[in-house]
Amino acid sequence: MNFKKENQNLKRPWVQYYPSPSIAELEYSDGTMYDALRNVALQNPNAPAIDYMCLRMSFGELHQEVLRCAAALKKLGARRGDRITVCLPNIPQTVIVFYAILYIGAEANMVHPLSSGNEIEFYINTSKSTILFMFDAFFEKLKGIRCPSLQKTVFAGAADLLPFYMRAGFRLTQGRKIKMPQENSSVLSWNTFLGKYKKAALSDDFGAVGIKCTDTAVILYSGGTTGIQKGILLSHLNFNALAEQTAANGTESILPGDTMLAVLPMFHGFGLGVCIHTAILKGVTIILVPRFNADSFAELLRKKKPSFIAGVPTLYEALLRNDRLKGVDFSGVKGVFSGGDTLPPDVKLRFDAVLKERGAKVMLREGFGLTECVTASALTPASEYRKGSVGIPYSDTFYKITAPGETEELPPNTDGEICICGPTVMNGYLDNPEETAKVLRIHEDGRTWLHTGDLGCMDADGFIYFKSRLTRMVKCSGYSVYPSQVEEVINSHEAVSISCVIGIHDDYKMNHLKAFIVLKDGISETQTVRDSIQQYCKENIARYAMPKEFVYRESLPLTKVGKVAYTVLEKEELSKNV
Q1: 424-438 pLDDT, tens per residue?
Q2: CA gap 169, 174 in Å, rounded
Q3: What span, in angstroms and rounded, lies between the C-alpha atoms of 252 and 94?
Q4: Measured between alpha carbons, how far apart are the two ends of the chain, in Å?
Q5: Which residues pair with 550 in a beta bridge?
Q6: What letter does residue 558 receive in the DSSP assignment?
Q7: Quick one: which of 463, 445, 360 has its CA closest to 408?
Q8: Which of 330, 271, 283, 334 is nearest to 305 (CA)?
């Protein structure tokens, strides 16, 4: 699939910053996500696909496991068009069942395993899932949930696929605390689920036929930081296009034999789209990390020496605080990427310094996007960094800035709503045509544009500057104030690690701002530090936008993907006044 004709007559000043002008338009497969795995497995079956603890699995072996799983799914009654919920961490079974679901033409409903029982119930009922794959350690969360559509539950564990001695060791240590679920006709273990397919000689001729690349493949969920979560319908093309774009824009060379450190979970667009599917499509080895811990992650960096690292800003901040990073050799790293939230300039500069000191020839590059277009649709180019910019659009992707809710493009450097058009834009929201119609709009050029609800601007060269969620705007003394802009100033103070600013109802001003601040390690909350931060804010923030209150905390609440959960702070403040 080629978008060259569709892209004619659209301005693209950012092309000059691509590593090569040839990547302005890319070729995308008309096949499915499963086809991407199958193609690599047939071309290079012995190449390593998964690296998990002491388990090594080639692409050929992974493909056979996917086929076994697909056969078992069909035995359970799964059919094309069904929705199957996957509530597992980054373990091999998650990759296997994900591609098996797609192979039979079903849709993968991806859920964070740390979700509460009520949240899991919501995800299953919203998607009307018929089968659930659940992490055994969290199986107790399912007690009391009511899901009329759910017919079968399969539980999987972190040690299921490891050699016997490793499984035994796990059961004697971490596994001791896990209460194993009882199997019955509707609850099966991973091994029982696979059953007779363990040694079956399977071919790949029993999958669904006639699946289009534009058919929905995956359901992901919006972060929930701005309201009720919505299911986001993403197609095979969305993910295949993202993988090609990431490979073309993110590195000048991504090759079989390279390795991708996959710490971002598969329920998240960044983790699934970049760390898993991009690696699969390009024949890259996935180093699966089921849980992030700064100490163990630093050890993985030292031992595995990955080619590519992707994470959220809080991951890089945690690594910078960790002494074990000092012994890591980054000389073989081809790409380091940050996404999922705004990357503080200070974190970028400090991590860039660490990369350079450890022999890397690359810098930390920030991406920007949202789940409605899988994940990143823009990336800072390797050739130029502009402070405050989240980069330039990916291949075949277009950005424009409009007045909120409008369609006409605003002049360069004018703040407005960020709109995106390209092959990764979602099919729509699950069973929500009204919300879909609000954000997917056909403009005068005849193309469908995603209205992101994000405030930002774009300069004359096509560099994008994200400012804030439009919904976070606070009216103070009649002025429109965007908390993220205030946070940017506070975060630039030398003593501040991270901050969050929210609006508080004020009978006099209608609203005022309250800043929550976490100081850097080794810095205490003294009067001198507090005065320094407040004076710095007075010098750099307009009077009407100046926070009225400053609160110092040990930490800030985070969403499941590591973003600062400002809505939690808002609810805390609201409860004080009830």
Answers
A1: 999 999 999 999 999
A2: 9
A3: 29
A4: 56
A5: 515
A6: B
A7: 445
A8: 330
DSSP 356-393: HHTT-S--EEEEEE-GGGSSEEEE--TT---TT--BEE
Nearest Cα to Cα of residue 564 among 469, 422, 457: 469
**Residue ranges of E strands in 267-396:** 285-288, 308-311, 335-338, 364-369, 376-379, 392-393
Q: Rounded CA gap, 271 and 282, in Å?
A: 16
**Length of the chain as a residue count:** 578
Half-sphere exposure of 464 (CA within 13 A, CB side): 33
Q: What are the tokens at 339?
A: 């996404």
| Single-letter residue type at 552 | Y
- CB contact at 8 A, 138 and 71: no
| CA–CA gap between residue 296 and residue 469 (Å, rounded) | 34
E strand or H helix at 450: strand 448-458
Side-chain-side CA neighbours of residue 520 (13 Å): 17
Other C-beta atoms closer than 10 Å to the C-beta of 67 total 26
Asked whether 229 and 132 are in contact (CB, 8 A), the reply is no
Residue pLDDT tens, the chain, 578 long: 666 556 666 779 999 999 888 999 999 999 999 999 999 999 999 999 999 998 999 999 999 999 999 999 999 999 999 999 999 999 999 999 999 999 999 999 999 888 888 889 999 999 999 999 999 999 999 998 999 999 999 999 988 887 765 665 556 556 556 778 889 999 999 999 998 776 554 566 777 788 999 999 999 998 543 446 799 999 999 999 999 999 999 987 899 889 999 998 899 999 999 999 999 999 999 999 998 777 888 888 999 999 999 998 888 888 888 777 778 999 999 999 998 878 888 889 999 999 999 999 999 999 999 999 999 999 999 989 998 899 999 999 999 999 998 999 999 999 999 999 999 999 999 999 999 999 999 999 999 999 999 999 999 999 999 988 777 778 776 666 778 889 989 999 999 999 999 988 765 446 789 999 999 999 999 999 999 999 999 988 878 789 999 999 999 998 776 778 888 998 888 877 65
Beta carbons within 10 angstroms of residue 474's beta carbon = 20
DSSP structure string for 82-119: -EEEEE--SSHHHHHHHHHHHHTT-EEEE--TT--HHH
H/E segment holding residue 489: helix 483-491
Supply 157's token pair: 């564990």
